[in-house]
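S.,

Sequence below, as promised.
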Amino acid sequence: MNPKEKIHFPNLDGLRFIGSMIVLLFHIEGIKQRHGQEFSSLILSYEPIGELNVSLFFVLSGFLITFLLLKEKQNTGTIGLKNFYMRRVLKTWPLYYFIMVIGFFLLPYLGQAFYPEYSKGLTDHFSIALMGYLFFLPPLLLGGYRLPDTMGATWAVTVEETFYLFWPFIVRRSKNFMKVSCVIIVSIVFIRDGAVLLRYLLKGNQYYTTHLTTMVELLGEYRFSCMAIGGIAAYIFITKKESLLQFLFKKNLQIIAYTLLLLMPILRIKVPLIDQEFYSVLFAYIVLNMAANPASIVRLNFKWMNYLGSLSYGIYLYNPVMRILSLEAIKHLFNRNIAGWQMELSFYSLTIGSTLLVAVLSHKLIEKPFLNLKKKFTFINS
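The prediction came back faster than expected:
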């Protein structure tokens, strides 16, 4: 493969767009509930589906990054770490820090009514929160408080950036990538579930219970296992294990995977101890089929989906800000006298429309110049 050759995985941009929209839709009712508006308890009861879609993004990210790292290692015998980190900085940091400026220095000062309602926690912990945000640290490490509503989506970025600090070293140095990845996944599950068991055994001791709870929540947020599972799917693809791929590409197996992914969240079925990892295996299987299987039973390779999929990072990060601004705009426009289907139609339409519009503008004006610069450090364009 020649350097700078373009690789495009069909369907994955469309999958990214659908995932970002599911996250957006299932978080709309949550903001209404938290701030005293009439909300749909039925939709809210399925809000974990939105959270589950974040795991899809982790799997996708793990798949794509690992594929590019393995391909570079395969072609050159090594991985250029400096170029890798420059690519990550140019791709993720500009929008991430732009959201930080909005959340910390703009929205809190739009009005006194706005500030305490949506930026809760910043008044008492502003400096600590700002430093944590600057260095991609989760709020749980900085006193146990949560990010304000305007920046809630950024926790996923902190997880990915932390993962990418060490993942290229693992890919570059591993002689048996599959074995190392499995050890990482099993270790994470063992530590997390062991902490859950220990917390139960020590539930009478407040000190240990508090610290174990923090550990469990951190490991629940830092879903490195999900990204490693995506990496395993990339390894299977890039090593071209034909017999395994022929089995994984079977139509009946695809139907089973899609059926499980459709029915299990709707029926609220959880897999004890390994729920996120179980879903991540299903996601990785579907990503592998969509990327590499010419006979994939689901095809999302449409121009409009590919375009909107390229905006998924912006859609994900901007949607908390836009749903808050949309809610405030509707409340002030109708003097808070709106409810029922009129509220639903207005709120959903304005939130979705404004999020897509801002994501388009942001991609053109903020992200694209950095993405163009990123090509200088790219071995394989994807």
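Residues 340-374 form the longest helix (35 residues).

Coffee later?
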